[in-house]
Design a protein that fits this description.
By secondary structure, the protein is mainly α. It is built from seven helices and three strands, in the order αααβαββααα. Strands 1-3-2 form a three-stranded mixed sheet. 22% of the residues are buried.
Length: 155
């Protein structure tokens, strides 16, 4: 499948915190592809039954989680949050769920870079892919506890 099959829209801000600037030569993310390539690779590895259910999920890379998000989760340290799913999981939807904004997966660049630097045992691409897949699992209705049962990444 291709990116178009899962609702990615080119020339939007899904893969860079610089928004549409990333398409210009001035965007520092445009040249190295360190964020776009791992995101696309993670999506390309999704099994077809999951990829078919992605709908219009928007992927965003932002520098930091905002203060409201940190407060919602009772966090003071922005380095503690590497990603976030915002939306209504598929398991909670009904026929009445229409006309709403698309679900979002937000990746936080600085916390991810910090964790990557501290770990030293994975590539940046592996970590970006892992956080992306973790957040996408929430789209399918999985809790953090359920994800941890099958994903032993942090052990």
């Amino acid at each position: 499948f291709s990116a178009a099959d899962i609702g990615l829209v080119e020339r939007t801000s899904w893969s860079c915190h610089h928004g549409v600037l990333r398409w210009s030569a001035d965007c520092p993310c445009a040249t190295d592809g360190r964020w776009k390539a791992p995101l696309r690779a993670a999506l390309d590895r999704l099994p077809q039954p999951f990829a078919a259910q992605m709908g219009e999920v928007v992927l965003l890379v932002e520098e930091w989680p905002d203060e409201e998000v940190l407060a919602e989760f009772g966090m003071d340290n922005p380095f503690e949050l590497t990603g976030l799913y915002e939306g209504l999981p598929l398991t909670e939807r009904s026929i009445e769920h229409s006309g709403t904004m698309p679900d979002k997966v937000r990746l936080f660049r600085r916390p991810i870079l910090d964790e990557w630097s501290e770990r030293g045992d994975v590539t940046l691409g592996q970590l970006v892919a892992h956080v992306t897949i973790h957040e996408l699992a929430h789209h399918f209705g999985w809790s953090d506890e359920e994800i941890a049962e099958i994903d032993r990444w942090w052990e």
